Amino acid sequence: MQNVREHNMSTPFSVNTPVFDVDAIRKDFPILHQEVRGKPLVYLDNAASSQRPVQVTGAIQHLYHHDYANIHRGVHTLSQRTTQAYEDARVKVQHFINASSEREIVFVRGTTEAINLVAQTFGRDRLQAGDEVLISHMEHHSNIVPWQILRDQLGIVLKVIPIREDGSFSLDNFKAQLTERTRLLSVMHVSNALGTVNPIKEMTAIAHERDIPVLVDGAQAVPHMPVDVRELDCDFYAFSAHKMSGPSGIGVLYGKLDLLKQMSPYQGGGDMIETVTFENTVYAEPPARFEAGTPNISGTIGLGAAIDYLQTIGMEKIAAYENELLTYGTEIVSKIPGLRIIGTAEKKASVLSFVVKDIHPHDLGTILDNEGVAIRTGHHCAQPVMDFFNIPATARASFAFYNTKEEIDQLAAAILKAIDIFKF
Ligand code: C6P
Question: Is the pLDDT of residue 2 over 70?
Fold first, then answer.
């Protein structure tokens, strides 16, 4: 079978040259080659979850067919092989996001669990009543609700940085919210509802001038652009494998090692301890301290394979190609009468959210599905963003590196068909 690796060996990939061969890339994704409701599938729901290449499913199958055993527990060969593969995946993540050490990489269920972990360990350890946690108006519910839970537990104050009309982040608004009681900034890198790319490096620099630690929700950034946590200088960074062609139920919390070392455990159980007696337990050092119980072994190894795959293509090339798709998609759908794009910030990544006059997004989603086009409709787990724009929901097309301009044409044609059905 032809795959990305073979392509990369002869000539480096380059956008706008035949070498970034999206047709060849698509061959690695069997799921894309099917008809839905009698039409060729156009999968544009990548922000919800992207699809996996055979290299990832193959790595998981290989594990179960040849090596599988529990990790960190056995002296036998299978356990050692699987432990090695699991820890190799940690090193792959480390290099992928340029962390200083593999000990800064904690495997969790996903972005949601990573943020809850920080709230319930770092947050509970350090915050007291009256302390302020700062988030932005564009956050996903997973970066709102964990802080509300902490607010109910500790009496902290949750403050919200207002966004601009175009859905962009304002550094001035951010600075205006900083007070003597600000103890943590927790913000998203890329908005799932709007596509806005936020100025994380600048925000982190401003926060650190006041010794305020920074947590970044990178769920929609890591799949679409190179991310360097040392360059961003954030203290924590969270992301999910299933949005970057890896398995579901596995994700990463990056944390600076000196902070992780100071944090209490999240859950108690096997593998997170040095010694246990009925009187006392000595916890393991990070990252084991935060990985209680048998982890998602196959998911972690699948994540490692997804990273290999993405790196073979190259994150810069993925970012450039997806940017081309977004620019093309924006141009095409902007011409559709009655369609309004929600989120028009200058810097955006891979997300095209829109409403079409008089058609509820759910109706639009159903008509598009009849045309084989998969998009997400709804509030995208970002209800405050919908409130900001005074709308109940949007239709959202979200792109991955295996999408094509032809698919965007199919999206536009399907929207026009919906408009025709509603006849306005
Ligand atoms: N957004 C979307 O359709 P989990 O579910 O833990 O893997 O990721 C949560 C999450 C956190 N932050 C951002 C910015 C996200 O986009 C998501 C997941 C999906 O937009 C499902 S709601």
Answer: no
Q: Record the pTM.
A: 0.95
Please state, in angstroms and as integers, the Cα–Cα distance from residue 357 to each residue in 341, 354, 424, following that order: 11, 10, 8
Asked whether residue 385 carries a pLDDT value surpassing 70, the answer given is yes
Q: How far is the CA of 236 from the centre of ligand 1 (A)?
A: 17
Distance between CA atoms of 372 and 318, rounded to whole angstroms?
25
3-state secondary structure of 14: coil
Please report which helix (H) or strand (E) contains residue 229, including its range: helix 229-232
Q: Best substitution site from 49, 135, 145, 220 to test ligand 1's pocket, by max atoms within 8 Å of Cβ? A: 220
Query: What per-residue confidence (pLDDT) applies to 20?
Result: 77
- Specify whether the CB–CB gap between 382 and 412 falls below 8 A: no
Distance 142 CA to ligand 1 centre (A): 7
Q: Is the CB of 142 under 6 A from ligand 1?
A: yes
pLDDT band at 19 (very low <50, low <70, confident <90, very high): low
Atom 21, ligand 1: which residue's CA is nearest?
48
Distance separating alpha carbons of residues 364 and 370, to the nearest angstrom: 10
The secondary element (H helix, E strand) that includes residue 378 is: strand 376-378
**Domains delineated in the chain:** 4-51+314-422 (3.90.1150.10), 58-311 (3.40.640.10)
- Give the Cα-Cα-Cα angle 89, 307, 216 (nearest 5 degrees): 90
Average pLDDT, the chain: 95
Q: What is the pLDDT of residues 31-67, one digit of tens each?
A: 999 999 999 999 999 999 999 999 999 999 999 999 9
C-beta atoms surrounding 346 within 10 Å: 8
- For strand 182-188 and strand 132-136, is the pairing parallel, antiparallel, or unpaired? parallel
Helix (H) or strand (E) run with residue 362 in it: helix 361-370
